[in-house]
Amino acid sequence: MDKALKTNEQTTVEVKPLKVKKRKAKSLEKQKSTFGWLFILPFLLGFILIYLPMILSSIQISFSSIAYEDIGQVLTWVGFENYSKALLEEADFTKTLVECLGGMAFDIPAIIIFSLFMAILLNQDMKGRAAFRAIFFVPVIVSTGIIESIDLQNTLAQLGDQVSNLNGDGVEGAVNAGTEIINAIDVERFFGSMKIGSELAGVVSGWANNVYNIVNRSGVQMLIFLAALQSISPSIYESCKVEGATGWETFWKITFPMISPMILVNLVYTIIDSFTTKSNIMMSFITTASNEANGKPLGTAMAWLYFLIVMIILAICAAFASLFVFYQRREK
Amino acid sequence: MSFSEKLKGLFAKKQKPEKILTGNAKIDVETSLWERFKAKYFNMFFVKKLGWIIFRLVLLIGISYVIIYPYFSKVTTSLMAREDFVDTTVLMIPRNWTLDTYKAIINDNKYFTALFNTTTLSLLCGVSQTLICAIVGYGFAKFKFKFKGALFLLVIFTMVVPHETIRQAMILRFRYMDLIGIIPQLNGWIFNMFDGGSISPETYEKFTDFIAMIPNALNTYWPMAILSLTGLAFKNGLYIFMMRQYYRGVPDELEEAAYVDGAGVIKTFVRIILPMSTAMLVTIFMFSFSWQWTDTFYTDLFMPASGGNILLNNIVSIPKSLDTEFAGQLAYETAIRNGCGILILIPLLIMYLFGQRTLIEGVERSGITG
Fold it and tell me: What gap in Å lies between CA B243 and CA B145, rounded to an integer?
């Protein structure tokens, strides 16, 4: 045994120059890893010095009450009081939350399917494709923030004015465009001769108005899908054609698996985006709650509860969707 | 070949009659024009194709209408004079055209000051966010280091947390611009110590003075600048993610060639990688610029209208010179607010017109695909 070990040592001596080489390679790797740290340094610094204190103090705020002294804001630990208040005393919180989740359950699949379908259409060769693309991506640029807040102000003004009739006749209809493309009264009139109740009219107009909402919110998703579609090699489609596959088969056997990673990405993005956008009823509820609470941390507690629920939903959806994701094997 | 060309070709070419001998008889087998026409267009394949083209066109035009109509109606209603809002026969097209609404908004709401401020802010934020996200994305894409996966999860985390959650904490953080954000904590401890009687009023006063000296970053551009320079501003997680995916698609051989030629890592990044990714950078810049332009959350938080910095989202109000007390008041005020919105969006739309081709190209070539 000892002899065998010795021979082993001897062999290592022979390999020595190789080892030196390896060490050199390692030092290069080390150097590269230092540069890696250097490149992500701005984010890292920001996260540690700005973001982390904010997150921690936000958690702390949600567990305490705020008093204003001459030294500034003073936080006193109160335990779960804010949370229990939000869940048990604030009547509208759970109601809005359920309503919001219900809306999302419909909206998110609709956005994914719509943006995928539209991306496939916009990827096809046709006349005026550039113009259509330009129009379709206007919402990406334009429809965040400011327009939503203007629409919100308009709706609030109308709600505040009791006398106004919101039948959308004449100019008022045109003025309100954007918040709704058709309104229930028109649908009722249309269905009036068919003896259909006003509930159905409400549902139909709700759907139609949701179209605007969904179109407006699927711009980024469309861009991502378009990028994914462009990256599928055309030779795959060619060989499909040669084998005699129909368009339907090609979609389900080629296109769909190839872009399934992007469906996952879009799903995650859509969930995050629709849960955190300003027009989301839950977000506006929290905003008004924290405005009304006058600096009291009720809104923060609500926001953390909401965040936890969003995270759980996100995790479930992502885990479920990743079961069906197909990754093309790549050699590296 | 387009449809019209095909049709032309069909009628222009006339095949020579072919003659085939079958036994003794000569049979003329020239197919008539009608026969060929029928063979070409009266089959399921063509009908399906045509149906699909029509369906696609209708769908695209319909959805384009849904997208454009709100802007169109906002423009037309904001061009209406006051009389039109009580006139029931006016629907979309104004009867009395006027630019008074716009004049009033521009003069009373200090439109140009706001435009200048917002342009400055958006340009600064857009450029810095683009560069920082490119740098951070490159770091995540091309280097191996410890905890890389965990650190990238932190990027995703900043994307996922709704900003409403950290709203109050953000105000506190930028109210006291110390290095690590400890002051709000100190406040509580010192006050409680004072309350419990363990420090004298004099020392407490000293502390109060000291805390009052700590700079307040609210109502300045600093909070936005700091957030932009650290990749924490609005949706920067998404930009970092996009840049990382893009740089992962760049072959390593490119950098290796540069290293062999004697360029360092930073030189390679500045001289080769950045110029190469122009389309992607333009895309990110357009996102960050326009989302900063239309942002209301951060600007309301850090620069409220009362603070003296007039930004574009502060100009949405009814100008005093437009008297709105009349029957059509509600619709008129809505139209004025929409007019403000149009004024805010016009510079953005002009930029989009020039940049949309690069934007779409950038995303297409990004290979955002895993």
Answer: 18
Instruction: Report in angstroms the alpha-carbon separations of B263 from A240, A247, B257, B258, B270.
Output: 45, 49, 9, 6, 10
Tell me the nearest-neighbour CA distance from A34 into chain B, angstroms. 8
Please indicate whether, in this complex, the C-beta atoms of A228 and B369 are within 8 angstroms of each other.
Answer: yes
Amino acid letter, residue B266: I
pLDDT tens string A167-177: 444 555 555 55
CATH number of the domain residue A179 falls in: 1.10.3720
Cβ distance B352 to A141 less than 8 Å, yes or no, reads yes
Chain B closest CA to A63's CA: distance in Å?
13
Within an 8 Å CB–CB cutoff, is residue A29 touching chain B?
A: yes
**Residues B152 and B293 placed together within one structural domain of the fold:** yes
- A179 vs chain B: nearest CA distance in angstroms? 8
- In chain B, what residues touch A149 (CB-CB under 8 Å)? 296, 313, 316
Helix (H, G, I), strand (E, B) or coil at A65: strand
**Residue that terminates a domain, selected from A62, A77, A103:** A62
CB < 8 Å from A in window 255-314 of B: 265-266, 269, 286-287, 290-291, 293-297, 312-313
Secondary structure, 3-state, A199-258: HHHHHHHHHHHHHHHHHHHCHHHHHHHHHHHHCCCHHHHHHHHHHCCCHHHHHHHHHHHH
CA B310 centroid distance within chain: 22
Per-residue confidence in pLDDT tens, chain B, 370 aa: 566 666 566 555 555 555 555 555 555 566 788 888 888 888 888 888 899 899 999 999 988 888 888 788 888 888 888 777 777 777 778 888 888 888 888 888 888 888 888 898 899 999 999 999 999 999 998 888 888 889 998 998 888 887 777 887 888 888 877 777 677 677 777 777 777 777 777 777 777 777 777 778 788 888 888 889 988 888 888 889 888 888 887 888 888 888 888 888 889 999 988 988 888 888 889 889 988 888 888 888 887 766 667 777 777 777 777 776 777 777 787 788 888 888 888 888 888 888 877 777 777 666 554 4
**CB-closest option in B144, B161, B168 to A307:** B161
Q: A76 in a domain, yes or no? A: no
Q: Which domain holds residue B237?
A: 111-177+218-320+333-366
Distance from CA of B17 to the nearest CA of A (A): 33
Closest CA to A273 of A226, A206, A214, A320: A214
The answer to whether residue A78 sits within a structural domain is: no
Provide ipTM, 2 decimals.
Answer: 0.76
> Considering CB atoms only, which of A50, A70, A226 is closest to B363?
A226
Q: Is residue A328 part of a domain?
A: no
